[in-house]
């Protein structure tokens, strides 16, 4: 697919997520509409935007997305996208598959008419153990997705990942090389242990590996009293990175909306200046763009 030539105004909604799903949906709606009023074409919500992030919460907040009447979050997201007339990368929500009863961490994407374009189920589950700092085991409750995902837009295809997926370069490279993606979007919830070391570095690495834009959207960090009660210490720092690894826009841990313009003429320029797509040595390593 040819590279798009227009500007894409993107907005990252770094919102506070509470234990009240209805409140989270209402806050998301208000912020999606506010972002659209500021000129956003595409709005991104955080990982787990309708539920606290923690294995103890996933089953309680889980909703069906496919194969049955969609849950309240999917209906609400479709309504927001339609009302705001934006592409909506609906963060992620805990999903239950009614046919298998398996749970997933899933990102739904809607077009400006509020139609569900695709869903991405987090492929790499967040299972880590940093002694004395953080232990997290999504696989205790969730199943991994079995597919890589992207969706078509007028600017070109856009790849999807969720948080821990950012650590796996193959996924972004397949999006870029096999599907011609011009950007990768990751709803994410890094934390105060891993965020400072890895979050920006990984985004910049994925961007320069592939000469495309990378956008991430995190929940805002909860207040100190909630952290003291065990709430997940989200790192925040929702960010947009240019194809040559520059931080185009970012923030700290607060409740905010980050706006930026993705310039796909610039992307084409960079790919001409740095022709790494043509310089690969597939005689020495396999071509990840092969097949589809
Ligand atoms: N929350 C995640 O999925 C990932 C994360 O926090 C990390 O990789 O660090």
TrEMBL record:
Top-level taxon in the UniProt lineage: Eukaryota
Keyword Lyase attached: no
The CN hydrolase domain, residue ranges: 8-264
Membrane-spanning parts: none
GO BP annotations, alphabetical order: asparagine metabolic process; glutamine metabolic process; oxaloacetate metabolic process
Enzyme class (EC, first level): hydrolase
Single Gene Ontology MF annotation: omega-amidase activity
Enzyme Commission number: 3.5.1.3
UniProt name for this protein: Omega-amidase nit3
Organism of this sequence: Tieghemiomyces parasiticus
Lineage: Eukaryota, Fungi, Fungi incertae sedis, Zoopagomycota, Kickxellomycotina
Gene for this chain: NIT3_1
